[in-house]
Amino acid sequence: MSDTPLLDSIDFPATLRRLERKDLAQLADELRTFLLESVAKTGGHLSSNLGTIELTIALHYVFDTPHDRLVWDVGHQTYAHKVLTGRRAGMAHLRMQDGVSGFPRRSESEYDTFGVGHSSTSISAALGMAVAARNKGEGRRVVAIIGDGAMSAGEAFEALNNAGVIDANLLVILNDNDMSISPPVGALNKYLARLFSGRSFNAARKAGEKVLSKMPSMLEFAKRAEEHVKGMIVPGTLFEEFGFNYIGPINGHDLDSLIPTLENLKLLDGPQFLHVITRKGQGYKLAESDPVLYHGVSKFDTNGGIKTGATAKLTYMQVFGDWLCDMAAQDSRLVGITPAMREGSGMVRFAQEYPGRFHDVGIAEQHAMTFAAGLACEGLRPVLAIYSTFLQRAYDQLIHDVALQNLPVMLAIDRAGLVGADGATHNGAFDLSYLTCVPNMLVMAPGDENECRKMLTTAFSHDGPSAVRYPRGSGPGVPLDAVLDTLPIGKGEIRRQSGCGSDNASRRVALLAFGSMLTPALAAAEQLDATVANMRFVKPLDRELVASLARDHALLVSIEENTLVGGAGAEVARCLAEQGVTTPLLRLGLPDRFTDHGDSVALLAQLGLDAPGIVASVRKALGDNS
Ligand SMILES: Cc1ncc(C[n+]2csc(CCOP(=O)(O)OP(=O)(O)O)c2C)c(N)n1
């Protein structure tokens, strides 16, 4: 690691605040060097963190943290914040089990004021804190820091709408780097670009001067800030209409702009809005020129940069991306939708080949779902690619707009199950539970890549709402058929038959594997000589298969990568109960608690969801200590 003498002397923001202003630029340089080298070793979010270094230093320098609250949106840009708040050593174990989380967490530090990972919550949470401070008579300042991508979500606007009338002491900082993960989309982005380019600057400035001249304190502030910030004060019409004082845009890498502006804003009461321009990947040329590639990185060499190349096995995400293009070629009704996850959902090729049928709607999961419903009403076949946890955002839209009207909206649900380094905020632990209880839904989980392709075709061909949920990363490596085949709906299959003779029926075990758990179930079955059913469908569950397995076995074992509460195993239990079957059922799955970040293979093993874990659980249930 490079020498970072000044950074070495900073353990907490209180020490930072004792530095002289002139030293902060060097601190920023050292922090940038440290973060680049550190993230290259551990993996993690890079571009966004390189872009917020000066802003983070300025915030901790000006505000009395942790008494004053910094509320970060998404939280993927908080590595500098972590380093400056006592967690520098912990960065060596970033996103590893028991190591520092990749996102702010209240349990990790008193400087992490709000737990996050999903976007667009910061203004709402900060507003709550600002109102609490006012009610309790605490003179603290509350600052929400939100990116231009995150700002596009409805929740951010709901909060702005509310903040303007509550009149609490809230500062919203828009960190505008003109990027989401992918290039930003939508009218808001165009509007921000206009503000930045200054085309509306002059007109707005005149209007602003009028307003400011009636408000001596603001005019005074404007003059002072203008001295420091080189004349960059404009009322931003949109944010002003929401009841905020809009200041900016200012250069978010220039500490001489940031610090005096923040110092002035700290003195102002009521809702304040500061528009800061930053660059994703700032200071590392490769990330500056390809911020998408460097948004989230695995370990890499900082000299050579990330080497892209074909990986050995196809990921499920790629299986989906290829299927989408193949299906689009066959059926012109197909429309692909992503809420801001073009790369992460494997839709880059589809977007290039079918630009007119590709819709990146921004970070707007609720809208994505209802937009899909509208398309389906008119006879199109929308495919909404969405991560399991982000789908949580669109739950009412799924029930009320899609399922209730039995519309053929297809969900391609990625990151179902444990995701590893991103941890609890991103673990897709609940989708089977919250989907299965919705009437009209078809819910499938593939055991391998080719089955995934078939399920996607089955879902697409189905005249009602459907979901295929598949995990992060790759599967067992089963080659793909070129054709687009469907599967019989609601039918599982026996993949392995127990070899026990009928005389040994009291020891027969049937493993009912759902999705990703098929591979460890098959491996466990070799040791247990168990029957393995690949259940394929969680809804409709193959009730005949369950009943016949119950007849022929002494123990049924359901295995799923979903919470045990209300998941696939719960459906099996319901099915048995409804049929009056008393064969014992052992349910294996994720526990009723949040699973933290770490290596997902290791985590699954710890939760008993690998082959040895399954064998051990079954033996225990059989009272077999061998
Ligand atoms: C609800 C939700 N949807 C999607 C994501 C995935 N996601 C993480 S960061 C990001 C882009 C955020 O863009 P912006 O706020 O501009 O921050 P930047 O990465 O540009 O610093 C997205 C889409 C998320 N975290 N939460």
Cofactors, ions and other ligands in the entry: thiamine diphosphate
Structural class: alpha/beta
Distance between the termini: 50 Å
Q: Please indicate the percent range of residues in DSSP E strands (runs of 2 or more).
A: 5-15%
Q: What's the helix count?
A: 26
Q: Looking at the structure, what is the overall shape? A: globular
Q: Order of strands side by side in the largest beta sheet?
A: 9-8-10-11-13-12-17
As a whole number of angstroms, the C-alpha radius of gyration is: 27 Å
Low-confidence stretches: 199-216, 226-235
What would the average pLDDT be, to the nearest integer? 93
Strand tally: 19
Main beta sheet, described?
A: 7 strands, mixed
Helix content: 40-55%
Short description:
This protein has 626 residues and is α/β, with parallel strands linked by helices.
Q: Can you walk me through this structure?
A:
There is one protein chain. The protein has 626 residues and is α/β, with parallel strands linked by helices. 41% of the residues lie in helices and 15% in strands. It has 26 helices and 19 strands. It has a 7-stranded mixed sheet, sandwiched between helices. Strand 8, helix 16 and strand 9 form a beta-alpha-beta unit. Helix 15 packs parallel to helix 21 and helix 22 crosses helix 26. The longest helix is centred in the N-terminal third of the chain and has 19 residues. About 4% of the residues have low confidence. Thiamine diphosphate (TPP) binds next to loops.
What's the topology here?
Layout: H1 5-8, H2 13-16, H3 24-42, E1 44-45, H4 47-51, H5 53-62, E2 69-72, H6 79-87, H7 122-136, E3 142-147, H8 154-166, E4 170-176, H9 187-197, H10 201-214, H11 216-229, H12 237-241, E5 245-251, H13 255-267, E6 272-277, H14 285-289, E7 296-297, H15 316-330, E8 334-338, H16 348-353, E9 358-360, H17 365-377, E10 381-387, H18 388-391, H19 395-403, E11 410-414, H20 431-436, E12 442-444, H21 449-461, E13 466-469, E14 493-496, E15 509-513, H22 518-528, E16 531-534, E17 537-539, H23 543-552, E18 555-563, H24 568-578, E19 585-590, H25 600-606, H26 611-621
Helix pairs in contact: 5-13, 7-8, 10-11, 11-13, 15-21, 17-19, 22-26
The structure holds thiamine diphosphate.
The site of thiamine diphosphate has 19 residues, from loops.
